[in-house]
Amino acid sequence: MNEPVVVLENVSKHYNELNALSAINLTLAQGEVLGLFGHNGAGKTTMMKLILGVIAPNVGDVTVMGVKPKDKSAWHMRAKMGYLPENVMFYEQLSGLEVLTYFARLKGQSKKHAQALLEQVGIAHAMARPVKTYSKGMRQRLGLAQAFIGQPKLLLLDEPTVGLDPSATAEFYQTVDQLKTQGTSVVLCSHVLPGVEQHIDRAMIISGGKTLALGTIAELRAQANLPIKIRPQGLNGAVVNDLALKNYLDEHGALHVPAQEKLSVLRHLLAAQSLSDIHLESANLEQVYQYYLSQAAVQDNNHKAGV
Ligand SMILES: Nc1ncnc2c1ncn2[C@@H]1O[C@H](COP(=O)(O)OP(=O)(O)OP(=O)(O)O)[C@@H](O)[C@H]1O
């Protein structure tokens, strides 16, 4: 098996009294895309800064591509890392091409490479203009181009789709999918959950610096045991009087069925002559996320109340 790209072992980081991260464990494989989710102040940026080597943990170990990111020997590994910070800022007086060429050179890449990246993110037409004339979306695209310099082995992206219009967002995810097939590992922080699910391999949900959940969406869904939504059609209200089904029914005619009863309910529905269609919907990433956060809030309240 290939060496993991990132390993966090029992990592904690505190700022005076505040525990920004507590006992975090994570192994990120080559070509793996991890979605890192949490409310404001959950610790997402802190985790990225630890991986970048900008800060060091108080407890535990961080290893990136086999080295400690704070070590002197980590310089060669940094050239293989791309980082898009939240609210990215650039030198306003320079043109887009000048900015990107500057960053490309820092990573040992050429102006030609910078130009190709500007084309890839769709702002080549504005590359001669000063960055101060760029719209929010154009700045974000420039930020992405900066993160993509040198075909990184590891990409850390903080809110990458903020300010992007729907087509730029779709193009961004296409690039992520493509980089993944080339073996790039990605950590992607986002508050915008719809649309992310199909582009990540695993999700990590954190709150108050602690891991609430880590796994594939299917694993998290199964762990959370969230009901499956089944919408039968053509039954013309028969469900209301069906003793086997009526307890699952909501006011819109959909059935909310526990995962372990899905098959028995489906068999029951399929036996109905008038059934014309059936639609199944598993909990989406947003619902899974809300579930884990609400569970954490309940535990927190119990803890405070001494339960
Ligand atoms: N340099 C610092 N000094 C003191 N506290 C800090 C520092 N950096 C971060 N924190 C605190 O650590 C906690 C985690 O912050 P972090 O920036 O990692 O959160 P986040 O999940 O990225 O939030 P957001 O979604 O708002 O960007 C917050 O309570 C924050 O105020």
Largest sheet: 6 strands, mixed
Beginning-to-end CA distance, first to last residue = 45 Å
Give the DSSP E fraction (strand runs of 2 or more residues).
15-25%
Question: How much helical structure, as a percent, in the residues?
Answer: 25-40%
Instruction: Determine Rg (CA atoms, Å).
Output: 23 Å
Tally of helical segments: 9
Integer average pLDDT? 90
Unreliable parts = none
According to CATH, the fold-level topology of the largest domain is Rossmann fold
Secondary-structure element sequence?
EEEHEHEHHHEHEEEHEEHEH
What overall form do the CA principal axes indicate?
globular
Defining key terms:
P-loop_NTPase; 12 strands; alpha/beta; ATP-binding; binds adenosine-5'-triphosphate; Rossmann fold; 9 helices; globular; 2 domains; 6-stranded mixed sheet; 307 residues; 23% strand
Task: Write up this protein.
- This protein is an alpha/beta fold.
- It folds into two domains: 6-221, P-loop containing nucleotide triphosphate hydrolases (Rossmann fold), CATH 3.40.50; 227-281, no CATH class.
- It is built from nine helices and twelve strands.
- The strands form three sheets. Strands 5-6-7-3-8-9 form a six-stranded mixed β-sheet, sandwiched between helices. It has a three-stranded antiparallel β-sheet with strand order 2-1-4, covered by helices on one side. It has a three-stranded antiparallel β-sheet with strand order 11-10-12, with helices on one face.
- Helix 3 (96-106) packs across helix 4 (111-120) and helix 7 packs across helix 9.
- The longest helix has 20 residues, at 285-304.
- It binds adenosine-5'-triphosphate.
- This is Cu-processing system ATP-binding protein.
- It comes from Colwellia chukchiensis.
- Pfam families: ABC_tran.
